[in-house]
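Continuing the batch. This is chain 6 of the set; chains 1 through 5 are on the previous pages. Same settings as before, nothing changed between runs. Recording input and output for traceability.
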Amino acid sequence: MNNLLEHVDDPVELLENCKRHLAKGGRLIAQVPNCESITRRLGVLMGVIGDISDISEKERDFYGHQRIYTLKSLEGACREAGLKVMRSVGILYKPLPNLELEYLCQKNGEAWTERFLKALVKFGEKRPTECAYLFVKCG
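Output for chain 6:
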């Protein structure tokens, strides 16, 4: 489930349904936006958003987000659905909004962009709560 749980009316119900359909030994993988990402934290400090847990009008009206997750709340939803959390991590340390990152990548070329993206992934490995996305593997 790639960026799905934040859109549905009842994510725990969806996770329970998915659990019922898993084969023995099967795995469920989910990725969601991170409420505690560095970009959201900077947005609060800049006065762009009131609180890191706030869903902006664009997130709600354009993207259809109904909620945003922390690592703890994502793991909690999975456990509430009866799933065993096997792994949970943050993915991609994203220090700037997409438009600014896109500009930097276009300006600096493909080789630089590849090194930069690998560095952001590596940097985020030790900072899961600051990454742009959260990832969970359950069984």
